[in-house]
Amino acid sequence: MKSNDRLSVFISLVLRHQPDAAGITLDEHGWADVNELIHGINGTGRFIDLDLLEKIVREDKKNRYGFDEGHTRIRANQGHSIAVDVELKKMLPPDVLYHGTATRFMESIKTKGLKPMSRLYVHLSKDYDTALKVGKRHGEPVVIKVDAAGMCRDGADFYLSENGVWLTKYVDPGYLSIN
Ligand code: HQG
């Protein structure tokens, strides 16, 4: 892994899961103070400055992070395990969404449905290929089709993160199909 990628993984950890790994706190909307984050990361023996942080945010392939208007605060767009409210937009999803997972989880998913597990939401993709990539992170991949239209009809809420990930609290097995 390149050193900037390693830094980005650490920034994800801090902004989504464990701010105290850099000795910082997030506010209720998930924001970290940019100067505190830079100072905190340097305090772990890693090196970062504002230019490098801006570059990592700008070049992130999944657009994981966002600054506020004045670039004084930064947060992760989605993927949190800690309870922050990143002011997600409630949106009507496409009729079908996809979830990539590993074959070893399928038995449990078929009976219990898709759960957020350690995160705040179940993560869904609008296209098959993205879901396949997500599945590959966990092992032998499988892509599950989610009947988002049916869920909406039955009153479920969906949110679209700033970086295009569809999120929902839970998917009952009745809305899942595998082909
Ligand atoms: C599985 C990445 C057993 C679920 C990606 C998944 C994504 C169950 C795993 C983002 C289950 C949780 C999130 C059940 C769900 N029984 N297993 N009932 N319900 N699971 O990493 O969706 O690169 O927390 O299928 O692109 O894989 O980090 O979620 O396999 O957007 O930015 O439990 O992370 O983005 O795994 O990935 P995760 P995910 P980043």
TrEMBL record:
Pfam families: PTS_2-RNA. GO terms for biological process: tRNA splicing, via endonucleolytic cleavage and ligation. Its EC number is 2.7.1.-. Belongs to the KptA/TPT1 family. HAMAP family: KptA. It comes from Enterocloster citroniae. Keywords: NAD, Transferase. It is an enzyme of class 2 (transferase). This is Probable RNA 2'-phosphotransferase. PANTHER family: PUTATIVE PHOSPHOTRANSFERASE, TRNA 2'-PHOSPHOTRANSFERASE 1. One of its GO terms (molecular function) is tRNA 2'-phosphotransferase activity. Removes the 2'-phosphate from RNA via an intermediate in which the phosphate is ADP-ribosylated by NAD followed by a presumed transesterification to release the RNA and generate ADP-ribose 1''-2''-cyclic phosphate (APPR>P). May function as an ADP-ribosylase. The keyword Glycosyltransferase does not apply.
